[in-house]
Every structure is written in structure tokens, then in C-alpha cells.
């Protein structure tokens, strides 16, 4: 029973790390990545569809993303969706592809993106702490229902705290790596 709680706790803490990495992929670093447009949705015949599912999206160089829609009539719809997403660039439509030219980032922009990353880190840490609370509550319930002893309960709480510390350290490490990536000129 206690091992199931540990497994549940570990699994959900890992989900918090995975979510943080997904969030980090949407942040711009010195080199532009297609992750910047992952959250943009396009009206595809009445259904809001991810931009990556209605065309080919590639980073052609360090500052350019090229979007080639699979259907020509989607060009204006994609262009409009990019403008509404407010990602910091205006799309250039040449009639067959849309190009996004990202200017080199200023140090102020880099600092602003680091602040966004810190916010994402704080959110991830909160989710880890919430998972810890859930695990501890389940342990307390087992102890209250006399399914485990007080000593086993104490050991289980200590084990969950060790897991929490481990995952918080992973979050801090991921942030250090991302911060270095963002600040690298």
C-alpha cells in the first residue's frame, strides 16, 4: 500500500518535470526553435487545430522559421493566427510560404524571458509540493485507519520528503541550464 503511494507520488512529480520542460520549449533562446509556435492554433475548416498539423514548420536558420501550409488557402488563416498569437514577429507571406524573421534578442528581452522561466519554475515547484501533500495525506489516512504503524508513517513521510527534495533539485538544474541557454549570446 505504501509502495503504491510512493509510485503514485514519483509518477506525478515526474509529470511536473515533464510539464516544465514543455513550457521551457516555448521560450525563445538565442537560437530560434519551432517550439515557439507550438501553442498557436489555426481555424482549419471550423476546428481549432495546432499550426504544426496544417503545414510543415522548420527552423531554416538561427533566426528564421518557415511555415509551408499543406493547402494554399490556409496561408491567410495561418498569417492571422500568428499575428493574434503575438509572438513578437510579423509573418511574411510570399504566396506559398510564411516566414518568421526573429531579430537578435536584446539583453532586456533575455532578462524578461528569464523572468518568465522563473515563473514556470515556481509553478512546477508548487505542483511538486501539491503532489507531496497528496502523498502525505494518503499516508496519514493509512495511519489513522490503523493500516500502518506510527513508525512506518514517519518513514513514509521522510521518504516522500526525499522524493520532493530530489525533484525540486531537478527543477533547479533544468532552470540553470535553460537560463544559461537564454543568456548565451
Structural summary, described in words:
A hairpin with a 2-residue loop joins strand 3 and strand 4. It contains four helices and six strands. Helix content is 58%, strand content 15%. With 185 residues, the chain is α+β, with helices and mostly antiparallel strands. The mean pLDDT is 90. It has two domains: 103 residues, Topoisomerase I, Chain A, domain 4, CATH 1.10.132; 68 residues, 2-Layer Sandwich (Gyrase A, domain 2), CATH 3.30.1360. The strands form two sheets. The protein has a four-stranded antiparallel β-sheet with strand order 3-4-6-5, covered by helices on one side. The chain has a two-stranded antiparallel sheet with strand order 1-2.
List the helices and strands and how they pair.
Blueprint: H1 2-25, E1 41-44, E2 47-50, E3 55-61, E4 64-69, H2 74-85, E5 91-93, E6 98-101, H3 107-144, H4 150-183
Antiparallel strand pairs: 1-2, 3-4, 4-6, 5-6
Low-confidence stretches: none
Strand order of the largest sheet: 3-4-6-5
Oligomer: single chain
Largest sheet: 4 strands, antiparallel
CATH architecture of the largest domain: Orthogonal Bundle
Could you tell me how far the N terminus lies from the C terminus, measured between alpha carbons in angstroms?
A: 51 Å
Element-by-element helix/strand order: HEEEEHEEHH
Choose one word for the global shape: elongated
Give the full name of the CATH homologous superfamily of the largest domain.
Answer: Ribosome-recycling factor
Nearest-angstrom radius of gyration? Answer: 22 Å
Structural class: alpha+beta
Q: Tell me the fraction of residues in β-strands, as a range.
A: 15-25%
